[in-house]
Amino acid sequence: MALLSGIVRLFNDIHGNGIIEPGDGSERIKFSYKDILNRGFTLPFEGQHVEFEIVKTINGPRTRNIVLKED
Fold first, then answer.
1. Which pTM was predicted?
2. pLDDT over 70 at 11, yes or no
3. Phi-psi bin for 40: left (phi > 0), alpha (psi -120 to 50), beta?
4. Is the C-alpha dihedral spanning 49, 31, 39, 15 positive or negative?
5. Taking the CA atoms of the chain, what radius of gyration do you get in angstroms?
6. DSSP per-residue string spanning 5-71
7. Does domain 4-68 bear CATH number 2.40.50.140?
8. Where are the domains of the chain?
9. What is the pLDDT of residue 38?
10. 60-68: strand order across its sheet
């Protein structure tokens, strides 16, 4: 599966979830902190560039294998 690129538009560090806006202009998608692959305790921030995969679930599309990029 190909990695997509996007930008973190929202992240709630208390609940550990947020929203990514894909770079291709498609609909924003939810993500969970547990799907981030970066080592250590690294929190995403609004506006941060990411790469990720999308999987289809019963509750709609979700992200997987998120890689936080250093800007």
1. 0.86
2. yes
3. left
4. positive
5. 11
6. EEEEEEEETTTTEEEEEETTS---EEEEGGGB--SSS----TT-EEEEEEEEETTEEEEEEEEEPP-
7. yes
8. 4-68
9. 86
10. 29-32, 17-22, 4-12, 49-57, 60-68
Residues 33/17, Cβ–Cβ less than 8 Å: yes
Under DSSP, the state recorded for 1 is: -
pLDDT tens per residue across span 29-67: 999 999 999 877 788 999 999 999 998 889 888 899 999
Q: 13 — alpha (psi -120 to 50), left (phi > 0) or beta?
A: alpha
Angle at 52 between CA 32 and CA 56, to 5 degrees: 70
Distance between CA atoms of residues 26 and 36, nearest Å: 21
